[in-house]
Amino acid sequence: MPIGVSEEHEALGRSVRRWVEAHTPPEVVRAGLELGREELPPFWSELARQGWLGLHLPEQHGGEGYGLPELAVVLEELGRACVPGPFLPTVLAGAAIATWGEQPCEIPRNRRSRIHRIPPRGRACVAGGRSPDPGRSLDG
């Protein structure tokens, strides 16, 4: 299903592009990509202050109350500049938390995992399960 790009989406895209140009020059992007380990980039707190981590989430869950089209605009601009950091997994985890909240999540072999709450602004999060037996994977 195609989505229409509105004037508001175009304005949001320009705003994100300006922020990216101001906060993630090529040397910051290169350093993040060459780091070799997972670490929040130095601009992560500023990115979080923009409200983009919760742009697509309902206000009652601490989000901005917009939707996936607006999130797609932000993702496009961050991707265009190869901005490092866990933006995509964080917003996906936030969407899962907002959708399923405290409901048990089915994972292979009937093991259970609970997703508890959206983390405070500026925190990265990942949704997933953990095997009770560290020697075994969740699917085996």
Describe the structure.
The chain is mainly α and 140 residues long. It has a domain at 7-86: Acyl-CoA dehydrogenase/oxidase, N-terminal domain (Butyryl-Coa Dehydrogenase, subunit A, domain 1, Orthogonal Bundle). Helix content is 42%, strand content 4%. A two-stranded antiparallel ribbon has the order 1-2. A hairpin with a 5-residue loop joins strand 1 (104-106) and strand 2. The termini are far apart. Mean pLDDT is 75; it is low at 106-120 and 126-140.
Mean pLDDT: 75
Span between N and C termini? 36 Å
The CATH architecture of the domain at 7-86 can be given as: Orthogonal Bundle
Please compute the radius of gyration using only Cα atoms: 17 Å
Q: What spatial form do the alpha-carbon principal axes imply?
A: globular
Spatial strand arrangement across the major sheet: 1-2
Extended strand count: 2
What pattern of helices and strands is seen along the backbone? Answer: HHHHHEE
| Helix-strand makeup class | mainly alpha
Our estimate of the beta-strand percent is: under 5%
| Helix content range | 40-55%
What are the segments in which pLDDT stays under 50 over at least 5 consecutive residues? Answer: 106-120, 126-140
The CATH C-level name of the domain at 7-86 is: Mainly Alpha
CATH superfamily of the domain at 7-86: Acyl-CoA dehydrogenase/oxidase, N-terminal domain
CATH T-level topology of the domain at 7-86: Butyryl-Coa Dehydrogenase, subunit A, domain 1
- What about the largest sheet? 2 strands, antiparallel
- Helices, by number, come to 5
